[in-house]
Amino acid sequence: YSHRWEIELGYREMKQYMLQNSLTLRSKTPALVKQELWGMLLAYNLLRFMMCQMAYSLNTVMPYQIGFKQASIFLVSQLQMLPAVAPGRYPEVLRYILDMAESFVLPERMERTYPRAVKKRPSRYATRPSRRRNSA
Questions:
Q1: I need a labelling partner for 54 at 20 to 30 A (CA). Which of 1, 60, 68, 99 fits?
Q2: Distances (CA, A) of 29 to 20, 40, 43, 130
Q3: Under DSSP, is residue 105 helix (H, G, I), strand (E, B) or coil?
Q4: Over the stretch 78-99, which tens digit does the pLDDT of each residue have?
Q5: Which residues does 33 contact at the CB level (< 8 Å), separation at least 6?
Q6: What is the pTM of this model?
Q7: Do the beta carbons of residue 39 and residue 67 sit within 8 Å?
Q8: Which residues form the Transposase IS4-like domain (predicted)?
């Protein structure tokens, strides 16, 4: 159940934070809509890959414990500045990104406090009390 929930959160992250809750894509032709969707999936996976690298650099954190919104804003800002950086300084920038990973760690999620169950619906009719049968 928790693994499926993480997948659902991934869909939410793409829709709310990357697409900014917009309902439509800008492209006019089906081929360009596909291209736009593939681009969005590629960008999401690249961000998630960098977040995995950040989590593994901390050794005690799983990738799903890194906050997507804050980390993605930080990563996009760092990647946009990358063309202005000399190629010899790329490892320095990468180390800086990995050093900042600790600031994006989310607090532990609380476990479910009640078991999953189907609620009984009240009936309009009275129920007969169950009688125990004598077993002889």
A1: 1
A2: 21, 17, 21, 65
A3: strand
A4: 988 988 989 999 999 999 999 9
A5: 25, 27
A6: 0.65
A7: no
A8: 1-46
